[in-house]
TrEMBL record:
Protein name as catalogued: TetR/AcrR family transcriptional regulator
PROSITE patterns, A to Z: HTH_TETR_2 (PS50977)
Keyword Endoplasmic reticulum on entry: no
Phosphoprotein listed as a keyword: no
Organism: Actinomadura vinacea
Keywords per UniProt: DNA-binding, Transcription, Transcription regulation
Length: 199
């Protein structure tokens, strides 16, 4: 281990790769992704610029991993989501919608700097595991409730999940392009969804 690398990791149990991801994630959390450079990440991490290329194919891979870490961190701060079969479907679905809206709002500053970087977003999408993302968990929740008989046996839960995701995306796009988020009544949205999928 080089002296510079040792200094960067002195008080940390992370590998250098994880240290670089954590550093970039912290920078994204504090200032978004616009203007984030390899040099800036390396300096903040306490390593030479070229060290990043020993652990990542390129800057895009590092940014994708850091953005994924940022999304996970945001979601962890929002608390757990309801489990199938607990509480009421109406309240649980409202919790999923509220969670999705809050998550999308929170990641908007980081996402805004990546809109013109499709290669980073493509790697972000490819780096995820099935079932890990909020959308996957929403769909799994709806499928489980259908299996439990708390939704209609022929409920089109994929379409319902797509509608909820669309509402969250619309809110973010409105913020991004007009600076305002449309008024959303989560209870009304849930009522409209359940009218089509409840037994």
């Amino acid at each position: 281990m080089s002296p510079r690398r040792a200094a960067a990791l002195r008080d940390d149990d992370l590998s250098l790769r994880d240290h670089l991801i954590a550093t970039a994630e912290r920078m994204i959390s504090e200032g978004g992704t616009a203007g984030l450079t390899v040099r800036g990440i390396a300096r903040e991490a306490g390593v030479a610029d070229g060290v990043l290329y020993n652990h990542f194919a390129d800057k895009e891979e590092l940014l994708a991993q850091a953005f994924r870490a940022h999304v996970r961190s945001v979601e962890a701060g929002l608390g757990p989501l309801p489990e199938p079969g607990t509480g009421s479907v109406r309240a649980n679905l409202a919790a999923y919608v509220s969670h999705g809206l809050a998550m999308h709002r929170a990641i908007l500053p980081a996402m805004a700097g990546l809109i013109g970087r499709p290669e980073v977003l493509a790697r972000f999408a490819a780096a995820g595991e099935t079932g890990e993302d909020w959308r996957d968990r929403l769909l799994a929740y709806l499928r489980a409730e259908r299996e439990l008989g708390r939704l209609a046996p022929d409920a089109r839960v994929e379409a319902a999940a797509a509608m909820v995701v669309g509402v969250c995306h619309e809110a973010v796009l409105s913020l991004l392009f007009s600076g305002t988020e449309p008024e959303r009544d989560v209870d009304d949205l849930v009522a409209a969804l359940l009218a089509g999928i409840r037994p």
